[in-house]
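so i finally got all the pieces together for this one. its two components total, 651 residues if u count the protein bits. some of the lines might not be protein, just check the labels. i wanna see the whole assembly predicted at once instead of chain by chain like last time, that was a mess tbh
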Amino acid sequence: MGQSFLFTFFALSTCLSAIAVVVSQTVVRMAFWLIISLGSTAALFFLAEADFVGAAQLLVYVGGTLVLLVFGVMLTASGPYLKIATAPGETIVAGLLGMLFLFMVYSSVGDVQWVGAEGVSAVKSAGDGGLQPGNTLRPIGLSLFGLRPDKDLDGDGPAAPGYLLPFEIVSVHLLVVLIGAAYLARAKRSRAANQ
Amino acid sequence: MLAAQSIAEFLNSFTWLNGYGYVLATIVHALLLIHVFAISPFAFIWLERKVSGRIQDRLGPTRVGGLFGWLQSLADGIKLIQKEDLCPPAADSMLFRSAPYIVCVSSFAAFMVLPFSHGWVAVAADCGLFILLAILSLEVFGIIMAGYSSGSKWSLFGGMREAAQMVSYEIPLAICALIPVVAAGSLNLGEIGSMQRGWIGNWFLFHDPFTFIAFFVYFVVATASCKRAPFDLAEAESELVGGFHTEYSGMRWSFFFMGEYASMFAVCGVASVLFLGGWNTGIGPIDDALYQARAGGSGSAGEWSAGYLANVLGALVFAAKASFGVFVQVWLRWTLPRLRIDQVMTTCLKYLVPISCFLFLGATAWPLVFRQAFTITTWNSPVGDRVGEGLQEARRAGVVPAAGSQESESGSESESEEVEPASAASVQPVSPMPELPGEASSSVVLSAKDVREVSQ
């Protein structure tokens, strides 16, 4: 009962604040509604017992990306409140695209064969063997190394290739991008100093 | 009924509650935490005034409430409630009004995963520290929004400074919080705290030189992340009037400060769990006695209340450690001059980030190079041990070849005859990694079966 109430509450707040993002005109107000929307999505993750994903959602999107967004707006805005006026053509195109996407999501949700509560709990008990609900951290960490007890149900087979290498490649790629950005910013400044 | 492990189980044992026990338990937890959130700023604002007074050779509050003016915060609160709730015409009123709530709610929500004693935590999440850092990082947004939506240049400057400062200080904060996590092998704050029971040498502060330095780096960064002096550039009352809260008055203004003092307590609480032994006293026999008292919780009412008292004592120890951290932050504020914004950024980006990266590298290398450190202390690392046990069993059964010469010299050799080979015959070694010289036992060869053993 409580869970379905909370789900309804957070799902509604996700959707309504997502609409508010589109409707509002000021960039920072959009960011505020986006916080509510993304925060409610994180709450939905917490409800679905995916603590790690929920926390990552909060840390990366709300705490990181949105702060950078507002910071960028504050640094670059010429007036007191930066506004975005949407042209009518853009509204029509975006509305059509949104409707198409909604149709796609609706049709694919309708096609899913839902397993029901028994199936989910069976998969769960086979997968993480009596872990407390929400404690997904250890399975996630092990699957980084390619150990997937939820996939490999009979056990003795070899471990799957892990996600560690792709993860490391992405992180090094980010580092390269950071160094590149720092280099570009630095080069500009020294050229200006020479002139 | 008294022997129930948690409030939720206790409430669910009443059948007439019809499964609403969890709802009630949630309300009880939330009310308890709201009181922590309300009373800790109450105490620390008084402490701030008293300590600042003493440091400046004044008396500080003396009148309200009698001895030491301990009711001063209540008088402040009553004054603030009476003030008019202003919103300047240039402000974006919706954002202006909601910004204090974001600050308040996010620093309150951080207490959700903070353990106050053994098992005394509202949400015992496995990635508790990660959730806590994620929630604390939301507080910045309220302050930036307050600065932006006030429609005042002082507020805008304050908000921009706060954004620049927090975007950079979050990096060393997270890295320094990771260092004891590497030592503990867990992100669960409750587990990290319980691992440090026993003598004071078991605290992660004294685990290795890297955690020792990391504690001080963490404390500096945590001070900055609560925007406390000498890092209070967002307020900077001598240059920016009041920074982000220039335009605020009354209760909305005080919400910022409730959030600030509560998050000071939260970050100091995290410091005490991660580095200072949490709710453990640091005296071996006392800790052991307390843990025994807690373990007897399933027995009679007398044993249950002994365990409860042990937990109360643990919570007091925890609160004392965290409050000492807050006291040091207050002390720093009234001792050090405020830095300039470029100095703040230099401190973070040129010094604290490289230092914390170095410490992190060192902390990961420490157990590999100095394995002896693990044998000196007596904690039981839940992750490492169980993986190790499974491997040891597999090695004893002769399925996984004993790696290197040092392994065969160690004690596992003598036990190898006692284990039947058939019991672990199904364990197949997967992709054995090449051995590092001198690092026999740390080379981990895992199979899917091992993992299932771990997760059970």
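Residues 126-162 of chain A form one domain.
Chain A touches chain B through 50 residues (CB under 8 Å).
anyway lmk what u think
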